Amino acid sequence: MQAIEADGLVVRLGRRNAVDRLSLRLGRGVHGLLGPNGAGKTTLIRTLATVQSPTAGTLSLLGTPANGKLRPVRQKLGYLPQHFGHYKRFKVREFVEYLAWLKEMPKKQIPGAVKEALERVGLSDRAEDRMKSLSGGMVRRAGIAQAIVNEPELLLLDEPTVGLDPAQRLRFRELVAELGQRACVLISTHLVEDVAAACTDVVLMNEGSVVFQGTPADLATAGTTTHVGDSPIERGYSALISAKSAGGAW
Ligand SMILES: Nc1ncnc2c1ncn2[C@@H]1O[C@H](COP(=O)(O)OP(=O)(O)OP(=O)(O)O)[C@@H](O)[C@H]1O
């Protein structure tokens, strides 16, 4: 059993299939999700986070069908949305505690788990500060803390490194490498360097489906010097997306 098993998955939003007959299998490890604007990355992650229902196809998460009983799956999930709301008056500790409670963690485990999650994202010294007093990068780190507080088996991170400074991005890469040893971690990003440095595997999406899955090194070999990009992996990305987006137009 893989953590994520999708076959012919369709997610319709309005008049579009944001996810369009997508098939994907992912197990333990750190997987990077790349693709141009509008490729369907956020919609896929929302669907895997059980926030959005599939329209057609089959999806199984941690061995449970996505149209089955989701409560046990949600307890083992960690999800950092691209934009996440929080009560600004919550202290950082309270924010992470609240999410741990929503995930139905045993009450006794919550204080220790919150302390550890805040340590892992380097926010222990801000635990008693209010969310509204944090910088943008710190809010994102608090978001990562709530995503990992329950030691998830499936961790979904939508653009987690936006707003992180270079030192924090390095720390983030170490953290996901640790987490990927026992969990399936899927990270959506536009930062190709993050994928090259942090991910064991790359999934490239375009127009709602997977156009490539392989190692960062495999992706790099898909490009040539004629393709757009500052690094081999960026040129590989451009080569695979090229027909639609490498024409130079927006
Ligand atoms: N609520 C919605 N209603 C209708 N269409 C939507 C909705 N949300 C997204 N879409 C459409 O679904 C497609 C996929 O969008 P999605 O946000 O999943 O892409 P993305 O790969 O995450 O893009 P980005 O890199 O810009 O964040 C786009 O065509 C988008 O316009």
TrEMBL record:
Protein keywords: ATP-binding, Nucleotide-binding, Transport
Gene3D superfamilies listed in its UniProt record: P-loop containing nucleotide triphosphate hydrolases
GO terms, molecular function: ATP binding
Listed CDD domains: ABC_drug_resistance_like
InterPro entries recorded: AAA+_ATPase, ABC_transporter-like_ATP-bd, P-loop_NTPase
ABC transporter domain sequence ranges: 4-232
PROSITE patterns cross-referenced by the UniProt entry: ABC_TRANSPORTER_2 (PS50893)
Record bears the keyword Cytoplasm: no
Keyword flag Nucleotide-binding: yes
Domain of life from the UniProt record: Bacteria
Pfam families per UniProt: ABC_tran
PANTHER family in UniProt: ABC TRANSPORTER, ATP-BINDING PROTEIN
Family under the similarity heading: Belongs to the ABC transporter superfamily.
Name of the featured protein: ABC transporter ATP-binding protein
Organism: Lentzea pudingi
